[in-house]
Amino acid sequence: MHSPTKPLLPIAGLRDRHLHVWGRETVHPAGRTLWSSRTLVVFPPGTSTRERLLLRALHVWGVAGALPALGVMAALNGSALGGTLAAAALYGSGFLVLRRATRRTRPSVRTLTVTTFHGGGRPRGHGDARLLAGALDALVVYERAALAGTISAVEFELVWADVWSSLPETPRRGRA
Question: What is the CB neighbour count within 10 angstroms for residue 146?
Answer without folding.
Answer: 25
